[in-house]
Design a protein that fits this description.
This protein is α+β, with helices and mostly antiparallel strands. The protein is built from 29 helices and 20 strands. Strands 16-17-15-18-14-13-19-12-20 form a nine-stranded mixed beta sheet. A six-stranded mixed beta barrel has the order 3-4-8-5-7-6, surrounded by four helices. It has a two-stranded antiparallel ribbon with strand order 2-9. Helix 10 runs antiparallel to helix 19, helix 16 packs antiparallel against helix 28 and helix 26 runs parallel beside helix 29.
């Protein structure tokens, strides 16, 4: 076909249905926007982490990192004196909360004379040009802020910044800013000796940055040093946080991408429905082109080009919308993806052109696939019949029960496939096979179901039933579209509800105290000393106190860190954590610990096994006494009794306190008594059990907000496609409507018939989608979530929500069929009968 003629035909076709084309492009754009926004927020988050890590590392080649509580500074002396090391810088770091505020800053204690050799940006301009400025670097009550922190906290040189440190609230004078550390995020830099005192880490450091001499093999040197390091201290590449952050958030991002792909796939169905309507209206045009010598391949190319154009327009608008939306999200709420993986406040905006191009290409490819499905039917039209204005429909849905069964069985082996690089590839493959099986089963299931429905006395209902029983191509495609969108949305609804109910039950068992007190929410610098714990425990309002202590365990250079949770452990708390086996075992030679499901999966541990974990710089043999459920820590935790931990680490501090009150209904009196007893502790956060549970569920709902949005978009696009498909079917049946009008049916009777057909199609699609969705939800609960996040949960059925969703699908299909067919049954439709003369 001539290129100029093809462009003219496409221009005319698109101009004839501007509203429907705009709807199609908008739906594709929504799917693309969601996918591109997810990718952009994620890449921006990683870019911010990478920039901050590299800004802090400077010209370092390697870093030695230990637990959150730090490690002995003698390790620094042993490494810094080695001949392979050109420069070494010890660092103490912690997150400190601003007193009387919810803001948190990262505090870095450095040896300025050593750190500047690796990162000159640690010296501000005034410090490098004046003796007074340089001297303030060693002042115990002075600190320097990054421009990001100064802007967010609205501080300048000379102002005072009160921080909640381990030794209480300390006020620091802002000595100046560090312009070269703008990429480091919210950062406060102070002298390392002062940081060790204020953070109660005298003799301990958090990290060592190393630059090696020229010619030294970094990998070989790291291997030699690792053999000399204490347990729980590892050496690796500098600025290696980005890779760990990417691994931690990967499963969550992939699940969001999968939902975005559902929206894109449903958008491709809308392209199919739109072009099918165009094909029904342009049947004489296509027949004339065939008569004039245009080949079937030429018609295929024309419709494929139209589909590609729609996909390209949707991709362009979607990418623009996704970039704009991700920028707004980054500016308003930082880089948090909703699941709490990233909590930065930076405004890094780093879209990935290759990923965005891939999303756009996928949208175009799916649109072309939808167009080719229509083109196959158009290419087989009978030219002579089409020139007589005969209706064009897609091939009738013959379907194959055997094909559906084969596809369903083919998906079963993938359920036992282990995760690939932490991703549930097998689970997604099984879902794909079962979706295809559901689509293949549409024809036979609809025929079997409709054959059992008796004819109705009402002429309108009888005609509607007869039409649906024949299941023309457009109608079959509508039912298939409903099945795809409904099954996935129903499956997600079941999975999210199951997760929320399991979380709520878990919170009910774990959150047992009357009042929870945090030394500094969201920060690690502040803590309760043993003396402060004793003061609180002695208050008349407090019946019992349970201290909670957290630390980070580095199991190896390439493994994700575990969280050590030290708390009093008894049968009740193990029951709350849903421990398996239940109860406390008899005490043996090793210290008993309980591990989470993630710790088991990621480390290959088993209940009853003897393992070694790093505590206080030494490898401690412990016995895994049981498995506990934990929805708070994706990458694993180890629970140890407080008495055992304190005996090993000689650490009696606590990060949080769980209080059991003598009068649980009078928590306000306990709060007042604690504030009076600890007047210096101005940054304490109090929360009762009900508030803690409510906040945890609110965080859950916020985490799944983007999931709900993707589900809504997918179902909306699918129903828009159903409406468009019914419009195409109604247009191709104008002659039938004309005959019915001659036989005495009123316009409202014909519209009622169309509404019944839509309701029937919606009910069939919803029923098949429900069965498919239930099966897919089991895969999501027991395979995808299990392999992605290492959480087990029970299936809970949201009967009310499912009923409302199914009823909404049926009602929307009925309304859409009636509205879309209104144009085809207007008075002029009677004139279509004259062409049969």
């Amino acid at each position: 076909m001539n290129a100029g003629l093809a462009r003219q035909l496409m221009r005319g076709s698109l101009a004839a249905s501007r509203v429907r084309i705009a709807l199609t492009v908008a739906c594709i754009a929504l799917g693309v926007a969601m996918a591109s926004a997810v990718h952009t927020v994620h890449t921006s988050a990683l870019a911010e982490i990478d920039r901050a890590a590299r800004a802090l590392a400077g010209r370092a080649d390697l870093e030695v990192r230990g637990p959150r509580s730090g490690f002995d500074e003698s390790v620094f002396l042993a490494i810094a004196d080695r001949r392979e090391v050109e420069a070494a810088s010890p660092v103490v770091e912690a997150e400190a909360a601003v007193a009387d505020s919810t803001n948190v800053v990262r505090v870095l204690g450095i040896d300025a004379f050593r750190a500047v050799r690796l990162q000159p940006a640690f010296l501000a301009s005034e410090a490098s040009t004046s003796a007074a400025g340089f001297g303030r670097l060693l002042d115990a009550r002075s600190l320097w802020l990054s421009p990001t922190a100064a802007q967010r906290l609205r501080l300048k040189a000379g102002d005072t910044l009160p921080l909640r440190m381990a030794s209480g609230v300390r006020e620091y004078t802002i000595a100046g800013l560090l312009p070269g550390m703008d990429a480091a995020g919210d950062l406060a830099v102070m002298d390392i000796a002062a940081a060790q005192v204020d953070l109660d880490r005298v003799g301990r450091i958090s990290r060592i940055d190393l630059r090696l001499r020229q010619g030294v093999d970094a990998a070989r040197f790291a291997a030699e040093i690792q053999a000399l390091l204490p347990a729980g201290v590892v050496i690796g590449g500098a600025a290696s946080l980005t890779g760990r952050a990417a691994a931690i958030s990967r499963a969550y991002r992939v699940n969001l991408d999968a939902l975005a792909m559902v929206a894109l796939a449903t958008g491709a169905f809308l392209v199919f429905a739109t072009l099918a309507l165009q094909a029904a209206r342009r049947r004489q045009e296509f027949a004339l082109l065939r008569a004039l010598g245009v080949t079937r391949r030429g018609l295929l190319a024309l419709l494929a080009a139209e589909g590609a154009l729609l996909g390209a327009l949707g991709a362009v608008f979607g990418i623009a919308l996704g970039l704009a939306g991700s920028r707004v999200l980054l500016q308003r709420s930082g880089t948090d993806l909703g699941a709490g993986y990233f909590g930065g406040h930076g405004n890094a905006f780093a879209p990935d052109p290759l990923s965005l191009a891939g999303i756009a290409a996928l949208a175009i490819a799916m649109s072309i696939a939808g167009a080719l499905q229509v083109a196959r039917a158009v290419a087989r039209i009978d030219v002579a019949e089409a020139l007589r204005d005969r209706a064009v429909d897609l091939p009738r849905a013959s379907g194959s029960g055997s094909a559906a069964l084969v596809l369903a069985l083919a998906g079963l082996p993938f359920l036992w496939l282990p995760p690939v690089h932490g991703l549930p590839v097998g689970g997604y493959a099984a879902i794909a096979f079962w979706l295809c099986a559901s689509v293949a089963a549409v024809g036979p299931l609809c025929r079997i179901t409709l054959a059992r429905i008796p004819s109705h006395r009402s002429a309108t209902a009888a005609l509607a039933l007869a039409q649906v029983r024949h299941l023309p191509g457009h109608l079959a495609a509508s039912v298939a579209g409903i099945v795809v969108s409904a099954s996935l949305c129903l499956a997600m609804a079941i999975m999210v509800h199951s997760f929320r109910e399991s979380l709520q039950q878990w919170l009910g068992g774990v959150v047992r105290g009357d009042l929870y007190v945090s030394a500094s929410p969201g920060a690690s610098a502040a803590q309760f000393s043993q003396a402060e714990q004793q003061i609180i425990a002695a208050l008349p309002q407090v019946a019992r106190l349970e201290p909670l202590r957290y630390d980070r365990l580095q199991m190896g250079p390439d493994s994700a860190p575990l969280t050590l949770v030290a708390r009093p452990i008894d049968g009740a708390i193990l029951a709350g954590f849903q421990a398996e086996p239940p109860g406390i075992p008899a005490r043996g030679a090793e210290i008993p610990v309980w591990i989470t499901e993630a710790a088991r999966d990621l480390n290959g541990w088993k209940v009853g096994e003897r393992v070694e974990i790093p505590v206080a710089g030494r490898a401690v043999p412990v016995r895994i006494a049981g498995l506990v459920r934990d929805y708070a820590r994706t990458w694993g935790a180890v629970l140890m009794d407080t008495a055992d931990y304190r005996g090993l680490a000689s650490d009696a501090a606590a990060n949080d306190l769980v209080l059991h009150l003598r009068d649980p209904g009078n928590a306000d009196a306990a709060r007042g008594a604690i504030r009076t007893a600890l007047p210096h502790a101005t940054g304490l956060a109090f929360e009762d059990a009900a508030g803690l549970r409510a906040r945890s569920l609110a965080i859950f709902d916020r985490s799944f907000a983007i999931t709900y949005a993707l589900e809504a978009i997918a179902i909306a696009i699918g129903l828009a496609g159903v409406t468009s498909s019914f419009a195409a079917l109604a247009w191709s049946r104008r002659r039938e409507f004309g005959v019915l009008r001659f036989l005495g049916l009123r316009r409202r009777d014909v519209l009622a018939m169309l509404a019944l057909e839509g309701a029937a199609a919606g009910a069939l699609g919803a029923a098949i989608g429900l069965a498919s969705g239930v099966a897919i939800s089991l895969v999501l609960v027991h395979v995808v979530n299990r392999q992605s996040f290492h959480w087990s949960m029970e299936v809970h059925w949201p009967f009310a929500a499912l009923a409302a969703l199914l009823a909404g699908i049926v009602a929307t299909c009925a309304l859409g069929a009636r509205v879309s067919g209104a144009l085809a049954v207007r008075q002029e439709a009677v004139l279509a009968v004259k062409d049969d003369a």
